[in-house]
Structures are given as C-alpha cells and as structure tokens.
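Section: Multi-chain targets

For targets with more than one molecule, the full set of components is provided together so that the structure can be written out for the assembly as a whole rather than chain by chain. Components appear in the order listed by the source. The example entry contains two components.
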Amino acid sequence: MDGADLFLHGLTVALQPHNLGYIVVGCLLGTVVGILPGLGPSAGMALLIPIVFGMDPTSALMMIAAIYYGAMYGGSATSILLNTPGEASSVMTTLDGYQMARNGRAGAALAVSAIGSFIAGTVGIVLLSALSRPLAQFALQFGPPEYFTLMVFSMLSAASLGGRTVARGLLSMLIGLVIATIGIDLQSGMPRFTGGFPQLLDGVDFILAAVGLFALSEVFVSLEDHFRNPAQLIGIKGRLWLTREEWRRSVGPIIRGTAIGFVKGVLPGGGATVSTMLSYSLERALSKDKAKFGTGMIEGVAGPEAANNSSAAGSMVPLLALGLPGSGATAVLLGAFVILGIQPGPLLINQHPEVFWGLVNSMYVGNVVLFVMNLPLIFLFVQLLRIPTGILFPLVIAIASIGVYAVNGSVFDLYIVFGFGLLGYAFRKLDVPTAPLVLALVLGGMMEQSFRQSMTISGGDLSIFVSSGLAILFLVLSVLALGAALVVPSLLKARGGRVFVEEAADV
Amino acid sequence: MFIRNPLKGIGRQAMGLMAAAGVLTAPLATFSAVPAAAEGWKPEKRVEIVLGVSASEGLNRNARLILDWLIKDGTIPPSSVVVNKPGGGHALALTYTASQVGSGETIQLVNTPLITNNLLGRSPITYKDFTPIALLYDETVVFSVPSKSSIKTAQDLIDRLKQDPSSVVFSTATGLGTVQHIATLALAKGVGVDIKGGKLKTVNFSNGNAEAITAALGGRIDVVVSSPQPVLPFVQSGDLRPIAVASRERAGGFLSDVPTWKEYGIDSVIYAWRAIVAPKGLTPEQVKFWDDTFAALVKTPAWEEEVKKSDLNPRYLNSADTAKFFENENKRYADIYGGLGLDVAKQQ
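Its structure, encoded as tokens over all components, is:
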C-alpha cells in the first residue's frame, strides 16, 4: 500500500462518525482549556488521560490531540479581551491584542487569530504528513550546543521588547532569570532557592508569572483608575471583521509565523511559546512602525497566533516519526500513547499505520471544526467587553484562579500568582516592562541546562558552541539581533524618536 | 490493508480482569470462612492510589491497572481513584501520603526516590514515615549505544573508558544519585576511572529519556543509561544497541542476549524497584487487608503478563519483608553514596 492509499485510509478513519464525535469533543475541551488561564494544553491533556484509559487508542489519541491544537485557538481570546494569556503560547498575543481591543478592534484581533490559526494549522499538517521522516532526521541535528545558541538568539531578540529604557527591560529580564533558577537543578539533582517549600521543588511555572503579571496587575491598575476616574467601557469601533487594510497587513505575518512556528515545532524544547516570541520579534524588526508595536499592531497578533498553531503541528513530527517528544505537551501525548498500550517510536508508522494516519488526518478535520466553531464565538466573546468593570474584574480574578488551581490543585500556586500580581502592579507604577521577566522565565531554565549539558559533553571547552554550522548560524543571528536592538533605537532617537520612547512603554 | 483492531488493548485487559477476579475472589472467600478474618477491615470510603508522577508517565499505567483490577473484583469501592501529585521527584506525593496518618484508604505506588530523596537531602521525609505494604517488581538498568557508534560491545566501552574516560559521554536520568547514575559511577569505578576527578561525563536531560535518546541518535551522547521500555522501540528499529545491563543475571525479553557487567567482572548491580506504601498509624487489620490484597494481585495472570510485557522483573515481598528491604536499601544506598563520593547525606 503506497503513501496516498494510507493517507486516504487515515482520512476515512478520522471521518467515521464516532471518531468525528471525539474530535469535536476534543476541540471543544481544547478551546476551554485554551481560554482558562493557567490551565494549558499539557495540563488539559493530562487531566483527560484517566478518562480515555481503556478506549480505542485511535479515537482516544484523536481526542487528546484535538485538545492540544484546540488550546492554540482558544488561548488568544482571553489574551485579547482581558490581557490574560489563556495559555503559555498566547503570551505574546497580549502585547498587541489587548491594545487592539482597547482601541475598539477586538473583533478584528479575534478574527485574525482564528484565520491565522486555521491557515497555519492546515499548512503545518500538510508539512507534517508530507515530510515527517526527513524533518525528524533534521531535528536530530539539534543537540545541547545548538539548543543553547538558539536560546541565546531567542533571548536577545526578545530583549528588545520595549520598555521606557533598555535598562528597565534588562532589569525585568534579570529578575526573570533569577526566578528561573528556583527548583531542583537538573544536572546535580539538588534543590536551589526553594526556601524549604516542597511546592517550589519543580520551580516557578512561568504561566503563573504570566497570569499574575499580566492579568492580575491589569485588574489592580484598572481598579485604581476606576476609583480615580470611573472609566468608560471600551467601545467596539467599526466592523467586527477585518478591514481591507488589516487584511493586507496580516498576510505577511501569518505566512512568516507559519514558517517559524513549524520549524520551531519540529525542534526540541520550548514548545510553541518560543516560536511566538521569535515571530513577534521578527514582525517588529520587519515593520516600518517599530515604535507602534505594543500599541495594537495587528501584525503582532497575526504572526504569533499563526506561529503557535503551526508549531503544534510541527511538534507532532518528532513525536510521530521518532517517538521523541520535544515539548511538554507532546510529552503528555507520548504518555497517552503509553497508557493506551502503544509504544511510540521509529516503527510507529509501520506497526500502527491506522493510528498514525488516522491521527494526522484527524488534525485536518479538527482544524476545520475549530475554525467553524471559533467564528461565531468571536461575536460572543466581544460581548465580554460590554460587561461593567464591577463584574468583569472579579470575573477575571475568578477565571484566573480556577485555571491556575486546576493544574496542580495547589493553593500555593494561587499565592504565587497573587504575588506576581502585586509585583506586576509595582512594575507598572515604575514603568518597568513585565514581558521580559516572563520571557526570561521561559528561556532561562532551558538555556542554563543546555549550556551545562554542552559544557559536560565538551569537558568545559567553549569551542563546542562553534562546532556545528547550526550553532554558528544562531550565534551570527544573535549578534545581528543585538546590533539591531542597540542601533535601531538610537537611529530612531536621532530622528526625533521621542514617540518611540513614550509609546513603547505600555508593554 | 487496514485492519482496525480497537479492542486489542481492551480485550487483553478484560481477559486479565476476569482472571484477576477469579484468582482474587478465591483468597477473599477463604477469609470469610474464618471468623476472625470475617470481621477484618475492608475499605468503605473511596481509596486513593497516590502517585508522584503526572498522568502521562509510565508508572501511571501500572497504578491505573492496579486500580482497575481492584475495583472490578470488588476489593475496593468503585469510586476509588488514582491521585496524581507530580512534583519534586515524588516529594510532593510522599508528603501528602505521609500526612494521611491512620487512613487505610490511602496507598502510594512509589519507586526508589522513597529512599534516595532523603539521603540526597531533597526531602526530610524518610521511608520510616510510611507503613510498607509490598514490593512489587524491579526494573533493569540498561546501557545502550547508537548503532553507528564505534562502541559495539560492553568490552569496547570498557576499553574506551580505560584509555580515555573523557571520550565517552553518558546520559543518566534526572540528577545525581539516581539508579542510572549509580550504575554508571559503579561501572567507571570498576574500570578504574577516578570518578572524583571530574573525568567521567554524565549528562542529565529533562523530559524523561526522550531527550537523551534524541541526543544519542544525533551523535551528542555516546551511551544512554535507562530503563528498558524507552529504548525498546529504538532497539527494534535498529537505531540503538543494548550492550550491557547492571543486573545480577541476564534479563529477559529483548535483553536476553545482553551481558551483565558482572560477566566482565565489574560490580555494577542495581535495580529500580517499585513498591506500595501506606501512611503510618494503620491498624493491624488494615495492614493485613492490603498485605493480602497485593499478595493475591501479584499472582494473577493479568499481573504477570503486564510485568512481562513491560520488561519488568517480578519480585514480590510482603509487608514485613518490605520493611526489612527498605531498611537494607537505605543502608546500602547510604554506603553507595559514601563510596562513590556523593556524600550529600552526611551534609544534612
């Protein structure tokens, strides 16, 4: 049986009524998981595993995978409407998405998220079905040194993410790096900076920081504004749908976001979140209006939202072709395989073709389902903006708390989120940007581990970081990113760039 | 052609369940004939099987199977659940179980961290904070190399280590003092490498063994030290080659042709075991209930098949013997850590 035959058989498996039912259920659950802050796809899938135990493996995996990519759609809604990242990979969407909503363009932001997600998801799956094997082999080129240099590049391209001054951004990033060292150190196995709290042994989950710093501090600041001068509700200007101009501006970011997301998805580590950072940085770098990023640029929503969806498809490549998960979410999916009695690995395609092709094809079906499901939701979601402050704020706190608590069932996590909320409030009052802290928390731990893994492998010889073409490539890109971050603002300033300074502060 | 066989897994499980029910009801029925045992304790409330890993890990499958089997034969109430409390290498789950003093409805499936967490200074909780119920099985530690590696056999690895220990990069599981790490250190020590001199290269990866295998296939890691299950598909596909096991005697299954380190005169023998513990303060009747339950469970064909399928080594010990076993293991690990230069325990 050749490839096309297998593919079509997979499609018929995915379209069987009961499987279609499971896909729809998975998409719905994924959307909910995506909307609830804190509760991300990894936790959502893990919660479902006990339920699928004993089910037909193909149907079960279709449903669990649907939660994964479904969450990528759902996460944007709360990011845009409430400045609360619904899940990790929607952190970047808050930066411009929420500002778009404040400018009255919530509908457009939601629409471009759904469209970008659909395009990127579909393209990603096409690539997944066509190129699994060669891409998986490419992913094997990524060892600790390549990974470390990629992290350096990600960090430096994110370092330019606004703030009144570079120093403020660096301060925020440094605090993030410090927090990233909390927990059991992977290389030695010893706890660091846990203060005797067993809950801190696994470190501080960055989604806690994101929910606290973005959502809660937003509530605190808005609350203060509300009492000083009762604010008007945010109106919705113009059409809910995209204008012609917004369309034009979104096409490029969606295409580039799809490419970045897929490549990053195939590579191990960091999951979708890193790809959204890279996409956002790229769009900002390419834009003529760099200064306006963080004030509601549709490019800053379209790119990252496309990236996280194609990344979800890309991350299936090493999992399905090699049985090697590259991210937390795919690791849970691998766990689901194991629980269902299927050992994923290089032989999966040959030993269980119905599982492999059924799953891949279910993703096409799922993407269509999600797109259709999300369009009417846009009109529903924007109504949220009509909710009066007195109801909306407690609602944000309640939703954020439920989402965070659901992950580990830990009250301790709620204290951490609240602490980050207060920290975020202080940051805003002091004009220190919060985004670099969250990014450093994502990248810091991985960067440290890959550095130390490299050092052990090379016996302390730094030349390991220039020992492969890929590592050198990332180092060169890092230098370029650093150069751009330092040179571009001063050029802008030279051209009377006070605008940049003021507008970029609101990150 | 596609032959969909959705019931394959379920069928096997169901057969197992029927067998489990048959074998398990037999001893339970015998108790009721004995007056003293008829008044014996039986859980009335829902039972919690606590687990220190997330729902996505291998250990979880064992816990779910145990839960399923015990519910189906009526040993525990149908509302019983597996409670996943991942974090801190079982530390959070152990803290939770230890706090349920006197509860006969809480048991935990745990592995070596029960002993090593405390010795390594990760947790103040020791094995003495629990009632031992049963030792269930242990897992082989296997050394694998990529097929294209110039290391083809255990002897090649020994030779390479003798020649230049820093030319071999090992990957072990998370952190110092894990069974994989100890097995590697013991090998190096046996070969004559100065293990305190920083010559031996052991790298740790998160995400279980997946990242380590990725790095090995990509040529960054020379030897993957792991349990059998993660490497099995790669051995079958010909990407990895198991070269030695750190066992007393040769393992079964796909490892039956793989020599032990002992055959090369190297004293690297260690197993990762899995056990059931309950909180302190249980009544003798409660201990007896769980003791009997697991004694019967490990004799069921379903259990035996699962153990075999997962390349585990059956090794059942009852409650009293498990208590002695923990005591010995605690001493043995403390000695090993001392001997290998991992003197963390003494710093605590």
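Residues 96 and 294 of chain A are 5 Å apart (CA to CA).
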